[in-house]
Amino acid sequence: MHHAHTQTPVMVEAADILLRQLRRQGIDFLFANGGTDFPPIVEAYSRAENDGTDLPRPMVVPHENAAVAMAHGVWLATGRMQAVMVHVNVGTANTINAVMDASREQVPLLVLAGRSPFSEKGRHGTRTRYIHWAQEMFDQAGMIREAVKWDYELHLPEQTADVVARACEVAESTPKGPVYLTLPRDVLAAPSIEPDTVPPRPPVRAGAPHAEHVAAMSEALSAAERPVIVTANAGRSALAFELLSTLAERHAIPVANLHQRFVSIASDHPMNAGHDPAPHVREADVVVVLDCDVPWIPNFTNPPEGCKVFHVGEDPVFARYPMRSFPSDISIAAEPAMVLSALLEAMVPDEAMISKRRERLTPKIAASRKALAAKAEPKDALTPEYVSRVIGELAGPEAVIVNEYPLRVEHCERTLPGTYYGLSPAGGLGWGLGAALGIKLASPEKTVIATLGDGAYIFANPTACHWAAEAHGIPVLTIIFNNALHGAVRNATMAMYPQGAAAKSAGRMLADLSPSPAFECLAGAEGHGERVETVDGLKPALERALAAVAEGRQALVNVVVDY
């Protein structure tokens, strides 16, 4: 007699589904700093090794701030969102600095964190260490909530694939940003009745600009005698770089950067108006604020009465900033490249007006560049301006420079998109070296240089970063501008109290970082380290360091600068 067999459902743990869904979402790396919440993840990776399942590459990074910065760097290089996993609440606390940077820079990241097991006994994955009680919080996500777009806690193993898909959908929808998901250990270890992954859900992209807005901006720019485009981030898109370069040249419109974070226009472009928009804004009749959160500082500069102001970007009003009161005639929520393309189609060249603008701007820009060049000439001591110039000369046009404050980008020629990245406006220090490692990981064929102040280098958790560079084979060149000082603290003090008591000690109170460590000794067991104190020693030292990186070794040059 034939007996029918009831098929038993295939049961897999939530951790397996989590990792498979991450890979299906296009996530290449899982940057991790583990803890007692990680065993289900470790076991899932080990099972996958045995059966050949394709999962995100696990990357141990022994500090959470560095792990998030590396994920940020991979996104800068590839445009592909990455994931980070950290240890419960304490690991989350260590991510917040870098997550704030990513949030303000509209960088999508998936931050995963363990959570104390729900159960106290009886379940697989239950609490088995004394810390599992103390590490539980009423609202673990509360500490990071303002810096992320979305947060959630995994409640049931059968939710896993949908929860990950939802997290990625939100993170990559415009305006992009980080998201946060907590993972109780006993849920991660539980079998799921839904073992399959789900298709990724396409994120929302910024739409095209309204035709009437394009017409209004086109008309205003065409008729303007003194227009200016102010940007910080337009160059995050290579297409926007090309279109902005064409628009500026064709219509003789100057482009000024304020706290540049991407290469939006080439250093040698005839309409590159430098890094101080203030002189142009003060006399402008039209200002286009292109993917820029702070186009001028109202305490010092404002456009004149009657000037038309247009804000353009995926989030042109920066809705997550509590206060931002720049005037606007029209704010256009669209991808900058789409707006620039529409403008190029809509604007009919007025040759007489274009000639008038070009005749006014060409000598002005030339004089500014000449004055800048004089500041970067070698002097008795090493200056940040001269060091920046030499870095630009030796790096070449295709090297990628990641700058955390000290590099004077106006003196460091950058002519190609994707070859310069600056610190997020959130100002969370410790980002630059990790981001450089992420870029190198994603682009091993490129030379990647991290330029850091000595304070920023300390914030970078350099032991963790240099370990990651060596362990994972990611050779970057770290250049420290060492003035034994938190320059931002000193500069802010001197600006507020130029004749005050603090000025008598050059504003070094609570900014002094002397005695300065021998940073050149920290480049790793197989790395190359040098200290430079003289103008004559700079180029040879940088050339040796670049050669070491080309050989596959990380390198660090500790450059003692005058200020």
N-C termini distance: 92 Å
Q: What is the CATH C-level name of the largest domain? A: Alpha Beta
Major sheet description: 6 strands, parallel
- CATH superfamily assignment of the largest domain? Thiamin diphosphate (ThDP)-binding fold, Pyr/PP domains
Kindly report the average pLDDT value: 96
Instruction: Tally the helices.
Output: 18
The CATH architecture designation of the largest domain is 3-Layer(aba) Sandwich
Structure explained in plain terms:
The chain is of the alpha/beta class and 563 residues long. The chain folds into three domains: 12-192, Rossmann fold; 211-365, Rossmann fold, CATH 3.40.50.1220; 376-560, Rossmann fold, CATH 3.40.50.970. The chain is 37% helix and 15% strand. The protein contains 18 helices and 19 strands. The strands form four sheets. The protein has a six-stranded parallel beta sheet, sandwiched between helices. The protein has a six-stranded parallel beta sheet with strand order 15-14-16-17-19-18, sandwiched between helices. Helix 1 packs parallel to helix 6 (160-172), helix 3 packs parallel to helix 4 and helix 8 (211-223) packs across helix 11 (336-346). The longest helix is centred in the middle third of the chain and has 25 residues, at 351-375. 52% of the residues are buried.
